[in-house]
# Entry
Amino acid sequence: MKYIKEAWYPVVWADRVSRELTRHVVLEEPIVIYRLENGSIAALQDACPHRLAPLSLGKLKGDNIECGYHGMTFDCSGKCVLIPGQDIIPGSALVRSFPVQVKYGLVWLYMGDPKNADPKKIFHLPQYDQEGWHAVQGDTLRIECNYLSLCDNLLDPAHVTFVHTTTLGTPAGATVPVNNEYRNNEITVWRWIRNGPVIPLFQKFGKLNGNVDRWHYYNYSTPCYFAIDMGSCPPGSIPDMEKRHEGVQMHACHVLLPVDERTVLQHWFHVRNFRTDEQDMDAELTASLDMAFKEDKVILERIQLEEERDPDFKRIILGIDAAPMKMRRMVDKLIEAESDAARH
Ligand code: FES
Ligand SMILES: [Fe+2]
# Structure
């Protein structure tokens, strides 16, 4: 196994799900997603149990899917309700269905045993719907790399100075060491950069100038959820590091969908506490973030190609790799525990 199965994964923005049968690939499994007549969403394995014809090539009949090959028809729970020309429906005429939740504008599927599908395990950011905060839907980037490389990147404040020079970084960050905290299946990598120049993004949108104290808290939780808390304040104005909300603060959230071993979807949105009623600014800020995340995409896709060209390449490990390595161990451990459980 290469993926944690007992988890919720974000597949697609809910506002893009319609009455059209649409095929998605989640952890290498093809899944057809569609909207039911009552507005809720269904997700079935995208394979007819007869000859494996993708159900997404079939037709929607009410809330049922009619296979486009010989017309076997399945309801939204995956149960076969009709076989043309045959009265008896075998018990094995079943398509797997996946538990679905909609949260933060995204459709989440539970990929493990449905009886473990507790919605409380979906990525959570309390500020999302709190007063004083404003949530803005971002976008989805498709990156041709292994999802763990993107996880490395999202736990890595050290690259920001070099990759995101016009948006998220300034040279002042380069030498400030990071702190790593590990809890169960969570990691926080954080640092404060005191009395340094404001980053371009906060200068533009946060109306800050000159020098600031600024922080980054990269919060990770398994399987691949990230909330990156970044913010700034006038130097010395927030002595208590837990009172970051008194400054200009933004949570850039990234929730990933591993499609297969070399493709990942990066769904992202942001939640901020400044200029919360300026809807015009949302699109502009989203465009700047989009530009920044595409800078990572360029590097990650090149690294993927190089890794494929030379799979045995021996990398050297730096101090900044501690948190990414810990993340990979957490993922491995969960995958191992799941395959142990499956064996017993
Ligand atoms: S392949 Fe679907 S009914 Fe034959
Ligand atoms: Fe980045």
